[in-house]
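Troubleshooting entry. Yesterday's outputs looked truncated, so today I'm pasting the complete records for two proteins to confirm everything comes through intact. If either block looks cut off, that's the bug. Protein one:
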Amino acid sequence: MAVLAVFLVTTLVLWRVGALEILHDGEKLEQVVVRLGPYGPALIIGLMTVAIVMSPIPSAPIALASGAAYGHAWGTLYVAIGSEAGALIAFAIARLIGREALTAWLKTRLTTGFLNRFVTSQNALMLVVFTTRLMPFLSFDLVSYAVGLSPLKVWRFAIATLLGILPASFLLAHFGAEIASGDWQRVALTALVLGTITLLPFAWRMVPSHYRRAVKQWLHLG
């Protein structure tokens, strides 16, 4: 109930100050961040954290605004910090309140049976987390909640998540910076690279089966 109360209050505050509307518009958000000066990075990190923990809040406009306001390197850093913090909070919430309460709260079925049944090693679970972080069409926060119900250790989850979000964080920040610069040729190239990364998990299925078996055997050694 305390966790739910915090989420409801946060949503109400964001709605009252008009932040929810701004969060859907990367350009307006960039202007707000720039006006805040030295407090802008803290806003980006805080918003990314809240967006990861709370599903209805979009994270892509925040990442684009971060790249547009702070460039590739710093924009990526702020997005990655916020995403990592949000993922760890979601993971911790799942561990604290358990499957039944979390399922009722999200009004969906969190099935981690495949994690517990078919994945028996910590290394393999880390690979699952890392791979899902490279798939933008999968819910980042829902994956964090679901993995929180698995036996994966916290430090392994943190490392796998960080390694998985860095490429997407960089590309989104880079995308935002390129849009701000008006170089549409580089914008198109960034979009192509982002699409390529998205397809990497499917490319894995094209790898010959004996190579995949060798990788799985190595993972189960963990």
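Protein two, checking that the full record survives here as well:
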Amino acid sequence: MHPARLSVGSFAIAIAIGSALLSLPVAREGAGSAPLSVAVFTSTSAVCVTGLGVVDTSAYWSTFGEVVIMALIQIGGFGVMTLASILSFIAFRRLALRERLVAQRETRTLGLGDVRQVLKGVLAFTVFFETILFGVLFVRLSTTYATSTGRAAYEALFHSISSFNNAGFALYRDNLEGFVSDAWVLLPVAVTIIAGGIGFPVLAELRRVPLRPRRWTVHTKLTVGMTLLLLAAGTLGFGFFEWTNSETIGDFTTKGKLLPSFFHSVATRTAGFNVFDVGEMEETSWLLTCVFMFIGGGSAGTAGGIKVTTFALLGYMMWAEAQGEPNVNIGSRRVPDTTQRQALTVALLAIGAVVAGTLALMSIDPLPLPKALFEAFSAFGTVGLSTGVTADLSVAGRAVAVVLMFVGRLGPITLATALALKERGRRYRLPEEQPIVG
């Protein structure tokens, strides 16, 4: 089986298993079991590390249900086939060629010889960042918020896994709004979100040559540069649009507005945590949030969206075309034509998926355009932010969101490749003819 189809199947199996577990009576608080639509939606949101929910996680699910969600988040963020490859390596101290090909596709490595090191790095980075955040949150919750030791450890573990995997699930009714002014919670969570979303290849390269940008690959330069640019632009943009909005940050001091603006800039690109009511934001902020959710984070990480490298490459392509350059150059490197076509395909398929999802949501449920568009962007970008309409979606509307989350997590090209019967190659080229553009 083609590795792409294998990954799609594995994610589907993980969602099915999660749905079955969440449908058990023991997974729900109170009597009875969760309806199938709720279980499937929650399982998909967890495996696809989205964070959208049709029920309140802390109130609806039992401890068993929350543990299932936490496990699904870890599996989904880590990658089903990546996890299977690592377990195989640990058990047998070797990887078969087929397993290495699957792991190569999952981790986006360029050579089969790099797969073992990448798999070890994925595991090491995951454990490192989740452990650090767990320790910080445990100390903060148990001391400042007088949470019992056992409960503080449980909440710290859940949110450390949710943060690194950019899932956005929280064990509080208002998500993280209760920590809107607590830098000791929000900043470590933000750093962990960035680390998980920037991509494992970038993390590995930054560890090898942290302070030598000239030696970085083009991928790392694009990812780091665009991440810093988007973080700064988001902080300034959200702070500007929400400056006087008393429902979000308008009543805070000038210094107090900076932290939630920065955190929303971090979370809106893939994580989905919120520190104020998204439904009360200005529509200009909604639009900016949609743009950030569509871009997403880094490749080969836990982030969603079309990825910052795709967005940056499209910008370089437009600049080269405007300058009349026959090639797209980034620094001292030329970008292959195949990579350019991949970027265009990903972006156009993503736009098509979001538009189709928005139309479906508006047709099925009586949602206004801004809220339907926001919901579609959030589901496809596996972000998890919502204007408050997710819980009111009909069963058919939930199915639309499930499809968007699944497609957004696996990527349009991966899904298209998985559905294709076989790869086709041509041994000839047709005569060239240039159509009029524009």
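Both blocks look complete. Sanity check on protein two: The chain has a mean pLDDT of 87.
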